[in-house]
Amino acid sequence: MLQVIHDAFAHRRHVDPPPAALSDTVEDIEQALREGHGVCAVVDTEIVACVLVDIHGPVATLRRVSVVPGAAGGGLARALAEAAGDLAATLGARRVELLTRREFPELLAWWERHGFDVVREDADGFILGRDLPVILEVPTAEAMQALGGRLAGVLRAGDVLVVDGELGAGKTTLAKGLGAGLGIAGPVISPTFVISRVHRSLTDGPHLVHVDAYRLGDAAELSDIDLDASLEESVTYIEWGQGKAEWLAEDRLEVEIWRSTDPAADGRTVRLTGIGRRWAGALETMREQP
């Protein structure tokens, strides 16, 4: 880990004073791991990226976010930050923060693109933060629908949900519970062949726009549906939206669903990640496992 940290920070342009990371020793890293946690990315038995994670109460702090120069630009930094956030969330943290120096505005912009906001200024730069994802174990299809009903309780008109998960993971099942919770008309079924279906509210709540982007090649094809015309008055739920629908809203809820790794089990893991100021604190009621 120490070599990865030194290589990554040495590759950045010179600043004065130099980063403290360049002065780290093996003993420093060992102590950080004894008192906290570390996450590494390994390729062909070699560590190519790493981060230190300190947890104090509800707040996790990321330090020494490092990717070796030869592996930079391939999405490792994002994957590393997400893995560290998931670890912190499972250990009970609710927010994550990190420091970025003011001499590196491009790093500030990168973290902001990935859902972080400036929390406060520090003598060395800016403290950025965001809520950690909500990670829930969902044992059955009925529990997935119930989760959708709970989620409906925190949604409002204008919200965009970008939903991802393999075939049969439970995306449409979650949407059914969401529709029931919103009080919409008609059954919720996958709009695979019609791409988009609007379910009108039977109450004074928002409508539900249910989209299946599986057959769409990219964001440009999704834009042809003119979803932005109904955004303000609806909750927009986009299955298979990852990599295609993020442009619709800077503030959005990203939902990821995984099958259990146990082939004999029918359970799912659901991760809810709020992006943008709209979601600051909005998912706190969802953190308790029912």
TrEMBL record:
InterPro entries: Acyl_CoA_acyltransferase, GNAT_dom, P-loop_NTPase, T6A_TsaE
Functional summary from the UniProt entry: Required for the formation of a threonylcarbamoyl group on adenosine at position 37 (t(6)A37) in tRNAs that read codons beginning with adenine. Is involved in the transfer of the threonylcarbamoyl moiety of threonylcarbamoyl-AMP (TC-AMP) to the N6 group of A37, together with TsaD and TsaB. TsaE seems to play an indirect role in the t(6)A biosynthesis pathway, possibly in regulating the core enzymatic function of TsaD.
Protein family according to the UniProt entry: Belongs to the TsaE family.
Gene Ontology cellular component list: cytoplasm
Protein name according to UniProt: tRNA threonylcarbamoyladenosine biosynthesis protein TsaE
Domain N-acetyltransferase residue range list: 1-139
GO process annotations (BP): tRNA threonylcarbamoyladenosine modification
Subcellular location: Cytoplasm
Main location: cytoplasm
Record flagged with keyword Cytoplasm: yes
GO molecular function per UniProt: acyltransferase activity, transferring groups other than amino-acyl groups; ATP binding; metal ion binding
Keywords assigned: ATP-binding, Cytoplasm, Magnesium, Metal-binding, Nucleotide-binding, Transferase, tRNA processing
Organism in which the protein naturally occurs: Tessaracoccus antarcticus
Gene symbol of the encoding locus: tsaE
Domain of life, per lineage: Bacteria
